[in-house]
Amino acid sequence: MNGTMREILSGQKDLLEIGESVRLNHVDCDAGVDTRRRLYITRKPDVLLAYCHNCGESASHYMAASDRYRETPQSAIRKPAIEYTSPLLISFTEKEAIPAEAEAWRINNRLTRTNCKQYNISYAPEWDSIYLPFYGMDGDIDGHQFRPLHRRGGAKYINFQKDKDVALGGIATQNISMSCLVVVEDLVSSIHINKAGYDALINYGTHVKPTILHNISNDYKKICVWLDNDNEVVIEHAKQMTAILQLYNRSGAVIELISEWKDPKHYSDTKIREVIDGHS
Predict the structure, then answer these.
(1) Which residue in 29, 33, 69 sits closest to 51, CA to CA?
(2) Which of 17, 101, 261, 262 could form a disulfide with 149 if both were Cys (CB 3.0 to 4.6 A apart)?
(3) What is the mean pLDDT of residues 140-159?
(4) What is the DSSP secondary structure assignment for residue 196, as one 8-state letter?
(5) Could you tell me if 131 and 124 are in contact, meaning their C-beta atoms sit under 8 angstroms apart?
């Protein structure tokens, strides 16, 4: 660790609270002048971590025992911290700051940089993960999940909710077409449903959530359930969702169960329209 990096870390220990991050220009960066704040510093309970996305240098500064949980000058005047905190994020529009693995994930999921910006999909450097927001029924962000780029045997997704007592489920973009809404498992599938010209309700998984399904507008002419029907448990959940929607149906909407073996994110916009229009 060069002297400049050591000084930067030392100076940040009294400014950052546990879990907070900051982006700075890396002074005297070995890869050249940094004007895009590509030095990321994150405070953990016992250590400050730094990584420069310009030159690749990393560093750490372990906190003295007396400093690990003491109040910073800023925390003394802040409101009590809540459990949920928003992570440090890098937009996919910042091409040079996005690692190759994140770019590969974006391309494999057929998402443009504009798609990512519109739906707030980003790269979270301190987690080395894709950031996927949880949208509520009102379109607000109710939390997020991380999709680690290097799982190393760990979980495929890591979830963080603002209110763990509220069932996850929502609509990222509304009123694309009030003719049809499609219930899907995840945000990426919902984006492809939107691109094909339909509204999508994101269920965030395959568990049956009657409270979420009950909040679907009565204005849709057709409602489809399209999950990743790759095993009997998921197929049964899809059938239960369809039955609940039929029970709640007061407007005469057509309720359809789509039995494709893959979910919408694996299909082109044209194929999605063929599948949905074929269920009418």
Answers:
(1) 29
(2) 101
(3) 85
(4) H
(5) yes
How are beta strands 222-225 and 180-184 bridged, if at all? parallel
- Residues paired with residue 50 on neighbouring β-strands, in sequence order: 41, 59
Tokens for 137? 């029924």
Return d(Cα 174, Cα 145) in angstroms, integer.
Answer: 21
What is the reported pTM? Answer: 0.70
- Report all structural domains of the chain as residue ranges with CATH numbers, in order of start: 3-77 (no CATH), 90-161 (3.90.980.10), 180-277 (3.40.1360.10)
CB 221 within 8 A of CB 254: yes
Q: How far is CA 4 from CA 25, 26, 65, 225, in A?
A: 12, 9, 24, 56
- Whether 134 has a pLDDT exceeding 90, the answer reads yes
pLDDT tens digit sequence for 12-49: 767 777 777 788 888 788 878 888 888 888 877 677 77
φ, ψ of residue 152 in degrees (nearest 5)? 50, 45
In this prediction, residue 261 carries a pLDDT of: 87
pLDDT tens for residues 84-115? 678 899 999 999 999 999 999 999 999 999 99
